[in-house]
Amino acid sequence: MPSDHLPARGGRRPGAGRPAKEPTRVIRLPERLLPLVTQLAAIGPGQGLPPGAWALDNHGQPLALPFFATPVRAGFPSPADDHQEDRLDLNHHLVRHPEATYYLRAKGDSMTGAGIHDGDLLMVDRAIEAAPGMIVVAAVDNEFTVKLLESTPNGLCLAPANPDYPKIVLKDAQELTLWGVVINVIHPVFPRG
């Protein structure tokens, strides 16, 4: 077949490939990290980490902080123990389902009785099946809230942990979507800023 009848293939295309003279490096990584690295590579400047991605230390490992195994007393002081036991990765200890866990900042004071204050960081797990008695992140008619899931004779309702707020009792036309169960609360001792 004459070459003038073949469709044009190959060659340089505008915008394809890496920028000229950009250095590259070959790296080896465990296959389990490939989806995370691919996701991180697709992020543009200033976009932050994707949901489920953990901050990494200088060695590419999930960030782990020093852990001193000696407990600190909240009552009478005890002699200090100077030796560091290990490094502690809170994600390893607090997260059961990394692919389904995300963080969310609390706003308002409707859950102060449950230890959730304005500005607290909530760790939410979408893989846990919500049940009455659990604190959940929910959307009622597309409005997000964090409340205690309660069972009533008429069905489910969302209850605050502050007597100044009313319960959210679902009406027939309202739509409830559960976005996960709150599994941990990070409450700062000092105000941020």
Descriptive report:
It contains two helices and nine strands; from the N terminus they run αββαβββββββ. It has helices at about 35-40, 90-95, and strands spanning about 65, 85-90, 100-105, 120-125, 135-140, 145-150, 155-160, 170, 175-185. The strands form two sheets. A seven-stranded antiparallel β-sheet has the order 3-4-9-5-6-7-8, with no helix packed on it. β7 and β8 form a beta hairpin. The longest helix is centred in the N-terminal third of the chain and has 8 residues, at about 35-40. The radius of gyration is 25 Å and the shape is extended.
Keywords:
2 helices; mainly beta; single chain; 193 residues; 7% helix
Give the uncertain stretches in residue-range form.
none
Measured on Cα atoms, how large is the radius of gyration?
Answer: 25 Å
Strand content: 25-35%
* Largest sheet descriptor: 7 strands, antiparallel
Helix content: under 10%
Shape: extended
**Protein structure class:** mainly beta
According to DSSP, the number of beta strands is: 9
Mean pLDDT rating: 76
Helix tally? 2
Q: What separation lies between the terminal Cα atoms?
A: 72 Å
Give the topology string: H per helix, E per strand: HEEHEEEEEEE
Give the strand order, joined by hyphens, for the main sheet: 3-4-9-5-6-7-8
Give a short synopsis of this structure.
By secondary structure, the chain is mostly beta strands.
Record the SSE blueprint.
Layout: H1 34-41, E1 65-67, E2 86-88, H2 90-94, E3 101-105, E4 121-125, E5 135-140, E6 143-152, E7 155-159, E8 168-169, E9 176-186
